[in-house]
Amino acid sequence: MITYLGYLRRAMVEIPQLCPSRDILFENYLNSGFPKVSVIVPAYNEADNIQDCIMSILDSTSLLADKFEVWVVDDQSTDNTLTILNTLKKNLSDSRLKILPGEPRPAEQVWTGKNWACTQATKRAFGEFLLFIDADVRLKPRAIETVVQAAKAKQIDLLNCIPAVVCGSLVEWLVQPLMFINLLVSLNSVAVKDPKTKTAFAAGPFMLFQRSSYEKIGGHQAVASYVAEDVALARRIKESGLKLRHFLGANLAKLRMYRSWASLWEGWTKVLYLGAQRSLWLMVSLALLMLNIYLIPWLVLVIVVSKSFLIGWKRLIYWQFV
C-alpha cells in the first residue's frame, strides 16, 4: 500500500501539467502561424451530452474557420442526437461546426466502438492536427490552443491529455477516482516510459495527433476491431518510433464518464483487458492488486467503526494501543 502511494506521488510530480497560455504575443501567433486544427467528436446516443460538449468546444477558442473546424459524427444513433445537432447548427450559424450523419459500418470488416465514426471524419477534416474528444468532455478556455502549441513545440506525435474527473453519483465516487489513480500510475510506469518496450497506454477522451503521424500508423482504421482503440493507437505510435506524451489537463478540460454501474463495468474491464495485453491471468492479477489497495482500507475502517459501537471509543483506543 505504501509502495503504491509512492508510485502515485511520483506520477503526480512527473506527469507534466498543461496550463493555458496568457501571453499577448500568443494572440498574434493565433492569427498568423498557428496550424489548422480539426476537432472530431464521435457521438452514439449522446442526446444528454452532445450540445454541452459542442458548445464548450466552440466557446473555448478564438480560432476562426480558416484555422479551426469541429466535425461531429452521429454514429447511427437511435435517440435524437442527430436532431439536436442539426438544430444546434441551425441556431448557431457557426461555419466552424460540421455535422456528419454517419454511414452504416462496412460489412466486409469488423468495426467496434467509435473507430468507424472517427475514420469517416478524418477523411473530410482539413487539420494538420487532429483532436479526438469524447462527447462527455467539456473544454475550458484556450484548451485547444494550449495542447496544439505544446505538441508542435515539443514535436509530439500523440499528446494524451488527462482531464479533471467529475463524479455525480455514489457509484462514480466509489470507482472513478480510484480508476484514474490507477491510470496515472500506469501512465508513469517505467515500462510505458521506456521507448524500447511495447507497453503503451492512453486515455481516449482527449487525444491529439499530428495528422502525418496519425496517417503513418493507419489511424482508427488500423485498429478497427479493437474495443479499447486508445490503447491500441498508443501502441502503434510507440511501435512506429513516434513520440507519445501524457499530460495532466485539469486546467484544460473536465470529464464525466460511465455514469452507471453497468457502463463502469463495461468500460473499465475492456481497458484493463487490453492494458493487460489480452491476458486473462494478468487482468485478474491487476484486479486482485486493485482490490487489495482500494478495498482493504475501507474494510479496516468499517471494522474499526463497528468496534467503536460495540465497545466504545475509549476502550477501542486502549485495546488498539495498549
Count of individual beta strands: 10
Spatial arrangement of strands, main beta sheet:
3-2-1-4-8-6-9
| Cα-to-Cα separation, first versus last residue | 25 Å
Beta strand %: 5-15%
Q: What's the overall average pLDDT, rounded?
A: 82
- Helix/strand order, N-terminal first: HHEHEHEHEEHEEHHEHHEEHHH
Q: From the alpha-carbon coordinates, what is the Rg to the nearest angstrom? A: 22 Å
> Fraction of residues in helices?
40-55%
Unreliable stretches (pLDDT < 50, length at least 5) are 315-322
Quick recap of the structure?
By secondary structure, this protein is α/β, with parallel strands linked by helices. 49% of the residues lie in helices and 15% in strands.
What does this 3D model show about the protein?
This protein has about 325 residues and is an alpha/beta fold. The protein has helices spanning about 1-15, 25-30, 50-60, 80-90, 115-120, 145-155, 170-185, 190-195, 210-215, 230-240, 260-275, 280-310, 315-320, and strands at about 35-45, 70-75, 95-100, 130-135, 135-140, 160, 165, 205-210, 245-250, 255. The protein has a 7-stranded mixed beta sheet with strand order 3-2-1-4-8-6-9, with helices on both faces. The chain has a 3-stranded mixed beta sheet with strand order 5-10-7. Strand 2, helix 4 and strand 3 (about 95-100) form a beta-alpha-beta unit. Helix 1 crosses helix 7 (about 170-185). It is globular and about 55 Å long. The two termini are about 25 Å apart. Residues about 315-320 have low confidence and may be disordered.
